[in-house]
Each structure stands twice: as structure tokens, then as C-alpha cells.
Amino acid sequence: MSRVNITLSNVKNYFYLELLSVNSKVDAFKCSIVEYNDYLINDAHRSMSDYIALTWLLTERKTDKIAAYMSLIMDAIKFLIMQFRILRLPLPYR
Q: What is the domain count for the chain?
């Protein structure tokens, strides 16, 4: 088997990128990190429907298998004014 050199100019010949949808076949995805498999299979759809994440799938054209995925998760850390004072941090607003 020969290796394929994938570059920016030919990557679209081998892969496509798509936003996760209810039709995405994520059950077959497997990588060596159990938590990554679990998130994609069990939590990614819920995170999208809760408007806290967007997940894109990098899929191999020849086999339609997911090669990788990326999730952009939006969250916030809330501080009370008292926590800013205890930590002696400047207030971000007045």
C-alpha cells in the first residue's frame, strides 16, 4: 500500500467537512481516547440542540468514515463581585 500525500490543494479530493446532523453516522467512530468517542456518540447532538456547541466532522470521501471531529464549545465562567474583591481583581465593568 502506498502513502498518499495530502496537501491543502488536494485535501478536498480525499475528505469533506460537514456540520454534525441527526443523519450523521457517528456510531462507527472510534479513536483511542474513550472520552472522545463517548462525547461524539452520546453528547454532541445534545450540546448542539442546547446551543452550547457546534461539531464538525471530517469524513473520508472514499469510505464515508469519520476521520476526525472538532467541537467548538461555548461556555462562561461567572464571578460574583465579592470574588473579584477577594482576589483583588479589577472589575470588568462599572
A: 1
Cα–Cα distance for residue pair 35/53, rounded to 1 Å = 16
Sequence-distant (≥ 6) Cβ neighbours of residue 15 within 8 angstroms: 6, 58, 59, 60, 61, 67
What residues make up the domain containing 74? 1-94
CA proximity to 30, closest of 58, 67, 3: 67
pTM: 0.74
Closest CA to 69 of 47, 91, 49, 87: 47
Low-confidence ranges of the chain (pLDDT < 50): none
Report the pLDDT value the prediction gives residue 85, as an integer from 0 to 100: 80
How far, in Å, are 1, 26, 81 from residue 88 at the CA level?
61, 46, 10
